[in-house]
Design goal:
Elements (H helix, E strand, L loop, with lengths): L5 H15 L27 H22 L1
Length: 70
Amino acid sequence: SVGPVGAAVAQNHLRQILSFFNAPLYSQPELYIHQTDELYTGDRTFNPGTEKFLRGWLAGFEAFLAKQLG
């Protein structure tokens, strides 16, 4: 998409479709990353708040996958 929210709208639509088919979804917390300078420090690493959120999200996703894969 050429707009800043096009990908988010497409992801939401895909989630609706997958939900209809009862596909297992990791939907909370939602994760939408929009490129902004505030996400990074001066050396282009994630700022502490962003890094903390992403690490928490990934830990939750890992637990979700482990549960799905048994």
